[in-house]
Design goal:
This protein has 480 residues and is α+β, with helices and mostly antiparallel strands. It is built from 14 helices and 22 strands. It has helices spanning 4-16, 33-49, 64-80, 92-99, 103-121, 133-145, 150-154, 182-191, 208-223, 227-256, 265-269, 273-288, 296-306, 416-423; strands at 24-28, 52-59, 84-89, 126-128, 159-163, 170-174, 257-259, 262-264, 312-316, 320-324, 328-333, 348-349, 354-357, 363-370, 382-385, 395-397, 404-405, 414-415, 435-438, 441-445, 449-450, 462-469.
């Protein structure tokens, strides 16, 4: 018996989750009613869709007296459906204690890390979970009582891309059961003669979600029949509105981008405060791939700093630091260096014709060429200087105490420190800015300004072209 009603709903869920035929799918398989119905339904539809199914059971060791028997039961169900089974054991209580987080949080984190590794190992299209319409209602209500914004009220989506804080790989979560009720799920299990694993922890009211499921939702359902379905509809309605908001946020962040993780401050400051916060949240998420542990207080502090003085910073969750400079703001972490300049330079002579290689994949090029029609360039990493420069002994170095500089267009020399401040070069970058100097003094502060004394004169038919090249340097990667 094919059970067309459930399979038709599942088929619709597969479409909404954008799961193609012949996909390799990791099924998050607890052996409970939801994941058992999911695995059984997928195994039937696989006859036409040719899925490669792998059932992954994570033994959390929360209930030691039943965890092994539950895993064995889950394996029996998977094997009866002809699906490959993988069982992995983790110590969630230990991780909860060591990380000082709840059992729920520790379990979810470890579970997704395991699924992420399996997804990469098998080159899977994604991980399929058994979240149902009832789970969606619980999630929306849980987020609502915590004071969530629009994103929280959207609840779960048919397709979500996550990035683990520990791993660089992205994990695609697929939820094709989101529009199917738990009663339909249980009915399908009975029709298929599947005896699912009943997790006794699902009745333990020390967990907030269980209180929502066992106490709050039944009261709401009694007061207003159909409340669970209404909460699920609320998620869909909010999702439509949030799609418009997110489109605006993505556009504003993209238009403000100088480079990855670095953005124009003025482009964002002109926006309404509510929108600024959302743009900053997206910038944070783009930097590390997720927004876990980022709270409203963090967003408020980022917004406040962006709208006030420059030269400030704030430490955010997951090892991220938010920087506010004169003209830009950026995100950095111990894994990602936001500085566009090379590593510290060992003072060296500059090759006049060709490359002067630096560490980190950087180099400075110098060449004498015919004067172009247009000397102005929008690329701050390139400058045109007097042809006389080609005959001078040039030194490439970083700054020293007491450095002075005569910026193009100015008569007096200024302290290099003061020039950096005026040009908006962040303090944390200044020791790495490449300087080219001769006996006449500093002639180019790479990425910022040529010296007045080294400028191209009207009578010059040739020019010296200098360029700093390196990983991810683009004409807009830094502006002063």
């Amino acid at each position: 018996m094919k059970h067309p009603d459930f399979l038709k709903q599942l088929g619709t869920g597969l479409i909404r989750s954008t799961i193609p035929n012949r996909a390799t799918l990791i099924v998050a398989f607890s052996g409970g009613p939801d994941s058992s119905a999911l695995l059984a339904g997928l195994s039937v539809l696989s006859e036409k869709k040719y899925f490669n199914l792998i059932a992954c059971h994570v033994n959390h060791q929360i209930l030691l007296d039943t965890s092994e028997t539950d895993q064995a039961a889950a394996k029996t169900i998977a094997e009866s459906l002809g699906v490959e089974f993988i069982g992995i054991t983790v110590d969630v209580p230990k991780a909860s204690k060591e990380q000082k987080v709840s059992i729920e949080t520790a379990g979810r984190t470890l579970r997704y890390e395991i699924l992420s590794q399996l997804s990469e190992k098998y080159d899977a299209y994604g991980v399929v979970t058994g979240h149902t319409k009832d789970d969606q209602a619980e999630t929306v209500l849980l987020h609502a009582i915590r004071g969530a914004g629009l994103k929280g009220l959207v609840g779960m989506e048919y397709r979500t891309t996550l990035k683990s804080p520990k791993y660089e790989t992205k994990l695609t979560i697929l939820r094709p059961l989101l529009d199917i009720s738990r009663s339909t799920i249980i009915s399908y299990c009975k029709q298929r003669n599947i005896q699912p694993v009943i997790d006794s922890s699902n009745t333990d009211k020390k967990y907030t979600r269980n209180k929502i499921r066992l106490d709050a939702l039944p009261v709401l359902e009694a007061a207003s029949p159909g409340a669970k379905h209404a909460l699920a509809r609320l998620a869909e309605n909010v999702s439509d509105d949030l799609e418009v908001v997110n489109w605006i946020v993505r556009r504003e962040l993209q238009q403000a981008a100088y480079s990855d993780n670095r953005y124009s401050r003025s482009a964002i400051n002109r926006l309404p405060v509510y929108l600024i916060g959302r743009v900053l949240m997206l910038g944070y998420r783009n930097h590390i791939g997720h927004s876990q542990q980022l709270e409203r207080t963090h967003v408020s502090e980022m917004t406040s700093q962006l709208l006030s003085h420059s030269g400030t910073s704030i430490d955010l969750p997951n090892g991220v630091t938010f920087h506010v400079d004169k003209d830009a703001f950026s995100f950095s972490s111990n894994k990602k260096d936001d500085c566009p300049y090379p590593p510290p330079i060992v003072e060296t002579s500059l090759n006049h014709f060709g490359f002067t290689q630096l560490d980190g994949g950087f180099a400075v090029t110098s060449e004498l060429r015919n004067r172009p029609r247009q000397l102005d360039t929008s690329n701050s990493w390139i400058t045109y200087a007097s042809p006389v420069i080609a005959s001078l002994n040039l030194i490439l170095r970083n700054r020293k105490n007491g450095d002075r500089f005569q910026p193009l267009g100015m008569n007096p020399h200024v302290k290099l420190q003061d020039f950096f401040v005026g040009a908006g070069v962040p303090k944390r970058w200044r020791d790495r800015v490449p300087l080219i100097e001769s006996k006449n003094g500093i002639l180019w502060v790479a990425g910022s300004r040529l010296a007045e004394w080294a400028k191209v004169m009207p009578e010059h038919t040739e020019v010296t072209r200098l360029e700093l090249i390196g990983p991810q340097l683009t004409k807009n990667s830094y502006k002063t």
